[in-house]
């Protein structure tokens, strides 16, 4: 199958938003998606973008059943380790089910690694759900370590009312 | 104890590195810190900063001396495609002798306030499960453990694996 990996443009945000929802459905959390293509356009294509995105595209002759040619994406951003410096965090990696098994996922992952290497990043991190064995195996096969298992790291979050409460206690400047 | 929170400046990089190493020592991983003052300067105070930093300082007894840097928090902005901007707290440390005085709480509240002001819908970080004091500190303030509640595991590719994957694929 012919495919091309390229940097996303603002015009791709509707397709990216569609695939974000597909991935959320796969992860069994579709009701948690609150932003649309409008926020993606604003936050990914402003002067200091909050994320970077690559898309995988197939030629017109190989488009999906519903007529889409943008069939996969990788959304990532730069982070920082006080021990090692510049890092890349791969937030989302997704290929439409109909197009899997053709090396598109690998193509997207490797392109992110290439971009990271160019920016002198020393590591690439991501998170995977514990029941998502296909994804855990995919990353492990390429050399990723599960740090939750080996070092006991857990992801923590403050959001909604808890974040608000904490903020309301902040000392005034 | 009187303390002041402020944005880090280029002159603070040697104090930041000192505190980074102290925290690494506490986590028994001091030899893993390969970052230098030069890296911190380029990466935090160049054209596109990779991180932001808040400093906590206390005045010296002799007021003609510079205040002492006793704590810091390093953070950056990340993106959750479901809810948008997040504030990611990468490192958070207060010197041993200055603990129990409200400096840690003060830093956390300041960051939460900053998160709200910059339109972030959440503040995220990682904690090692065996770091019971830190886990309790965050849970008391309403934090959720997403690894426990939703099953998220943190994965990493180190430099060697990264370089292997970065070799351009056949077009």
From TrEMBL, chain A:
Occurrences of domain N-acetyltransferase (ranges): 3-164
Any Pfam family the entry gives: Acetyltransf_1
InterPro entries tied to this protein: Acyl_CoA_acyltransferase, Diverse_Substrate_AcTransf, GNAT_dom
Record carries keyword Zinc: no
Source taxon at top rank: Eukaryota
Keywords of the record: Acyltransferase, Transferase
Protein family membership: Belongs to the acetyltransferase family.
PANTHER family (alphabetical): DIAMINE N-ACETYLTRANSFERASE, THIALYSINE N-EPSILON-ACETYLTRANSFERASE
Protein name, entry field: N-acetyltransferase domain-containing protein
Origin species: Characodon lateralis
Automatic annotation (TrEMBL), chain B:
Top-tier EC class: transferase
Location (main, coarse): cytoplasm
Superkingdom of origin: Eukaryota
UniProt keyword Transcription present: no
Domain (N-acetyltransferase) ranges: 3-170
A matching Pfam family: Acetyltransf_1
Annotated localization: Cytoplasm
Keyword list, A-Z: Acyltransferase, Cytoplasm, Transferase
Enzyme Commission number: 2.3.1.57
Catalytically driven reaction(s): spermine + acetyl-CoA = N(1)-acetylspermine + CoA + H(+); an alkane-alpha,omega-diamine + acetyl-CoA = an N-acetylalkane-alpha,omega-diamine + CoA + H(+); spermidine + acetyl-CoA = N(1)-acetylspermidine + CoA + H(+)
Keyword Kinase: no
Pathway: Amine and polyamine degradation; putrescine degradation; N-acetylputrescine from putrescine: step 1/1
Family from the record: Belongs to the acetyltransferase family.
Subunit architecture: Homodimer.
Protein's name according to its UniProt entry: Diamine acetyltransferase 1
